[in-house]
Amino acid sequence: MFSFEIYKTSVFGCKSLYVAQKACLLRAPLGQLARVSSCHNSYFRTERKYTTTNSLPFEFLKDCLSVNQGFPKMHESVLVSDDTISNFMKSYKTNLGSDKTDFFVHLCNEFGFKGFNEASKVCTQLSQTNEKNSTEIDAHLEKLRNISKPLYFDLFTMIGRLNDGVKFLINFRSDVNNSIQNCPFQNDKNQLRLLSLHLREVLSLWCSPGLLELVRVDWNTSASLLEKVGTNEAVHYVRNWLDLKHRLAHDRRCFTLLHPAVPNEPLVVLHVALTSHISDSVDLLIRRRASNKNDDGEVSTAIFYSITSTQAGLKGIDFGIHMIRKAVGNLRSEFPNLTKFSSLSPIPGFTKWMKRRINHELEGDGEDDTSLIPEQDSTLIKHACGLQTDDEMYTFLLGLVDNGEWRNNEQIVSQLSGPLLRLCARYLHDSKNSGGYAYDPVANFHLRNGAVMWRLNWMADTSLRGHQQSLGMMVNYRYYLDRLGKNSRTYLMDKKINISSKMDVHL
């Protein structure tokens, strides 16, 4: 059934305009398409007037975009000189402060979508077209696609043709996303989200995996790139240059994806440990001694223990699976005996989820009829910690996150392992996001890539961050190369999480 909400998503958004419009047409009674014409352009109006303290960037913006209005699209690329575009980029960088919300709202108001009436007419024509007349339908859809493109789309195209244009747009989108978070007006937020979506569409094309080069980073890599690899590490903090050197040792590999238009700027960084088994502790991988080194002849397993997207402006563009597949190909060429590939991943949402569920239990407002802690585990925890009531047990569990002293008591650590591993397994397997997929973002990432939720590991990350995120637990996602496609389809289409027997014992 065609609706204006679908129309906004497919036409003003960035989700394959042609396909989305044709899908709507073929699934809807033709007369319903005309309803779009009754909608008013007020959806795109803001709740406040634009103000600015520095007009220079806006003058250059006008120079870039106003000249294109009224000219055929085929000529727009030659109407604006590179110098004019460069002047806008320089002015944007130097004359706007940290809060660029006003500028972005002005960009949307003055150079956003302007063809509402024309689009409504085309939709009316579509509603009157025989659905068997594919030629006429295609012509209307092509016209609708051109009408629906906002004027600022041309700005992105012109910037992208310059040498530093892609990097500028990555930073530009990062600024837009920051403005979305800080903007107090809902209609402004809606416009900025559309702006970000259009930027994501452009950047996903210009940064497609086929254009990216996999580069191995080692101690002989340039100092500037090494520094960026170290400072951008988001999973396991790099303390100093010596720490980074350990992560580039002979039994370690570090890869990054580079774009030819963004030289010496890593887009994604992957750290790999080469071992003889599937590791159950990141402490042994990154906080090791020289005696822990493996002999190259014993290497049979690659452990992906950190993958970091370094560019905030590329948020929502998934390079992870392409990085892993390229890295696997590189590693198998270097080490033909590699047979096992697995991650050793953090569980960033567990303690927040546990705290929220415990607070619901204490308030008598459980999310379902099932107790958060089964009776058998409740008895184990109470016995181990000298507790009497459920409320005491839940209060104790809340305190585990804020006070890590319990980790120094080996008996308590041992007796809590079973109940907490089972609780964490329920979080990973049963807790879902609004789309019905795994709630934990790292789990969702690996499962979408076709990995199997393979094993939970107790006290695998004893760092402060690891304790605060998941009480030190980590999980292995196993990559069976011959089953990646099947597993990914099962997860994405049926929302089924593939688990191993090692994981199943906790459920």
Give the number of DSSP strands. Answer: 7
Question: Taking Cα atoms only, what radius of gyration do you get, to the nearest Å?
Answer: 27 Å
Share in helix: 40-55%
Continuous helix count: 23
How many angstroms does the end-to-end distance come to?
A: 41 Å
Q: What's the pLDDT, averaged over the residues?
A: 81
Let me know the largest β-sheet.
5 strands, mixed
Order of helices and strands: HHHHHHHHHHHEHHEEHEHEHHHHHEHEHH
Low-confidence stretches: 1-47, 49-53, 68-77
Sheet/helix structural class: alpha+beta
* Strands in their spatial order, largest beta sheet: 1-2-3-4-5
Shape: globular
| Quaternary organisation | single chain
Note the beta-strand portion.
5-15%
Q: How does this structure look, described?
A:
The chain is of the alpha+beta class and 507 residues long. It has helices at residues 4-12, 17-27, 56-65, 76-79, 82-95, 101-111, 116-127, 134-148, 152-160, 165-182, 186-206, 223-231, 241-246, 282-286, 320-334, 350-362, 375-385, 390-402, 410-430, 441-448, 464-470, 484-494, 501-504, and strands at residues 213-217, 252-258, 268-275, 301-309, 340-343, 452-457, 474-478. The strands form two sheets. The protein has a five-stranded mixed β-sheet with strand order 1-2-3-4-5, sandwiched between helices. Strands 6-7 form a two-stranded antiparallel ribbon. Helix 6 packs across helix 11 (186-206), helix 7 (116-127) runs antiparallel to helix 8 (134-148) and helix 10 (165-182) packs antiparallel against helix 11 (186-206). The longest helix has 21 residues, at 186-206. 33% of the residues are buried.
